[in-house]
Design brief:
The complex is a heterodimer of chains A (180) and B (382). Helix content of chain A is 42%, strand content 21%. With 180 residues, chain A is an alpha/beta fold. Chain B has 13 helices and 15 strands. Classes of the chains: A alpha/beta (180), B alpha/beta (382).
């Protein structure tokens, strides 16, 4: 498979790091792939632009950081401003249309999708924004089977929140597939 | 798919390795980037009947593991640079009193409180020489989470075999990065258990009288034998002495038991070394970048190889000398100002062919950084 290099970015509390871990864990545990996940720590991770790097591939991963992501996800204006320049030419940029106004043209397929608005309209709880975003990402890219992410959610999330997360993942998936 | 596959941080891999090795007691004082070791053990260790103690500081946590080890327990503490500095005095005591223990140092930038959330490998020489007096120590490292697991088990095995502290030197990148580990089944990796004395109650027990093979059987403190433990030079009963013959013999013993077994303790990995003209030597997170370069340049016909060191002390100088014998150049890749490079220069036949590819700004050295230095060494400019 092609080596997938993803940078998730946003602000602290949006769950971008959790989303990155869930995706990478799903790849390793349920897709039989190799994955690494790393993240910014300290002052950078508190407020400001939080970042998490994920590499997914079927071969051993040596250098674990992402220098030029072929998938970049930005959930705040600040993270978009900071990271939009590092995207690999020909890659993919996914932003949330509520939080990010894309100003520059980058050499990438750009998806500005109403992820946050859909979450609020259909579920009403911002806490599942990150899971919705994962669904959208998988819907756009067919990166892995959504069931694999769902299995990780089942393992990690308290049972009374599971249904809400399942719904967020499915709605995100639909939004991604519609815009593919 | 088997359920022993886990997706964890390097620090958690260390926890899994310690539990696999039979850790009974952990005391520590949380510090970035090692905190997850304490965090996960606080949860896991009591659940399997072990003891977890959060102490008032790093000095106390080092002293607590020494005491616990003497009672027959497998012990560990974890810290980072500033805490490692504080532990040095008690670490010297553990060397002198021959107490098996494992000290994990997840390195961050220094000196002083330095660069807490960023990567560095600048504690290699501190691990070797951080304490006063002539002494030797064992220091292991790892570049991926599976190796972190295995080297943690190895650290316990070496500590018990040689009755000595073992430093496990990790770094922020490996400690915080998540990747796959496969936890082996019980028994898959052999474990070394404490060598206990066969001397019965009421019979004289000599805690510091080595057997022919150099090993010292221990008696659990609080059990049937009473004996003295001290940081002073001591005789075979453990009582202080200034007798020149005893002082000389003990100092020799403390150093010989490590250095004479350097070959047995030498753990390393080699990649594409058979016909390598240019050798990279690296360890820890840097070795990942170095291997990336080697795997990328090989298909283009560059005869590059990587020697990844997993034992840093006692320095595997025989391995390094042999592996570098036919190399045109040797480039040491590390995130400090040349600490292992100095040891490599001392080991090889021609120190003039040893170069340093380093990065000291708190970021993981990249394959591009290394390629740039290689081009310079080859006289091809930047």
């Amino acid at each position: 498979m092609e080596r997938v290099r993803i940078v998730f970015s946003g602000s602290g509390g949006q769950g971008v790091i959790t989303a990155a871990i869930l995706l990478a864990e799903a790849a390793v545990l349920y897709e039989g792939l190799e994955a690494t996940q790393s993240q910014s720590y300290g002052p950078e991770a508190r407020g400001g632009a939080t970042r998490s790097d994920v590499i997914i591939t079927d071969r051993p991963i040596r250098f674990p950081k992402v220098i030029q992501p072929n998938i970049l996800i930005c959930l705040t204006q600040e993270s978009y401003n900071k990271f939009c320049g590092i995207i690999r030419p020909g890659g993919m940029l996914l932003t949330d249309s509520r939080f990010v106004t894309t100003e520059r043209k980058v050499d990438a397929r750009q998806f500005e999708l109403p992820m946050f608005r859909t979450v609020m309209d259909k579920i009403g709880k911002p806490i599942v924004f990150n899971i919705f975003m994962l669904g959208t990402l998988i819907g756009l890219t067919d990166l892995m089977r959504p069931e694999s992410v769902m299995k990780v959610l089942e393992k990690r999330i308290p049972s009374h929140f599971l249904e809400m997360n399942r719904k967020a993942l499915e709605l995100g998936l639909e939004l991604g597939q519609e815009n593919k | 798919m088997t359920n022993n596959i886990r997706f964890v941080q390097g620090n958690e891999a260390c926890v899994e390795g310690a539990l696999y090795a039979g850790l009974d007691f952990f005391s520590g004082y949380p510090i970035t980037p090692s905190t997850e070791v304490a965090e996960h053990l606080a949860n896991r260790l009591p659940a399997k009947g072990g003891k977890f103690l959060q102490m008032e500081d790093e000095i106390a946590s080092m002293c607590a593991i020494i005491g616990a080890s003497l009672t027959g327990k497998k012990v560990m503490t974890a810290t980072s640079g500033p805490g490692f500095s504080l532990k040095q005095e008690a670490l010297g005591y553990a060397i002198m009193a021959e107490i098996p223990c494992v000290v994990v140092n997840v390195q961050r930038g220094g000196p002083s409180t330095g660069n807490p959330t960023h990567v560095s490998q600048a504690d290699v020489m501190q691990a070797r020489w951080g304490r006063h007096g002539d002494q030797s120590i064992v220091c292991l490292t790892a570049s991926n989470n599976q190796d972190v697991f295995e080297m943690t088990v190895e650290a316990f095995n070496i500590a018990e075999t040689y009755r000595t502290p073992v430093v496990l030197l990790l770094d922020e990148t490996v400690g915080h990065m998540r990747e796959k580990i496969v936890v082996p089944k019980a028994g898959e990796i052999p474990l070394v258990e404490r060598l206990r004395t066969a001397v019965r109650e009421g019979v004289d027990y000599h805690p510091y009288l080595p057997r022919e093979d150099g090993r010292l059987p221990m008696s659990d403190f609080g059990d049937v034998h009473r004996y003295n433990v001290t940081g002073l030079f001591h005789d075979m009963w453990g009582f202080p002495t200034t007798n020149p013959g005893v002082v000389h013999g003990l100092l020799r013993h403390l150093n010989d038991k490590i250095n004479n077994n350097a070959n047995q303790m030498a753990r390393y990995k080699e990649y594409y070394m058979d016909d390598a003209e240019r050798v990279l030597i690296s360890y820890g997170a840097s070795a990942r970048s170095a291997l990336h370069v080697v795997e990328n340049r090989r298909p283009r016909g560059e005869r590059l190889g990587l020697l990844e060191l997993q034992t840093l002390w006692p320095f595997p100088d025989v391995v390094v000398r042999e592996k570098c014998r036919n190399a045109v150049s040797v480039c040491v890749v590390e995130m400090n100002m040349g600490q292992v490079m100095q040891a490599v220069k001392a080991a090889v036949d021609d120190p003039g062919k040893v170069f340093l590819a380093n990065r000291i700004d708190g970021n993981l050295i990249t394959p591009t950084d290394i390629r740039g230095i290689l081009r310079l060494i080859q006289g091809r400019g930047v």
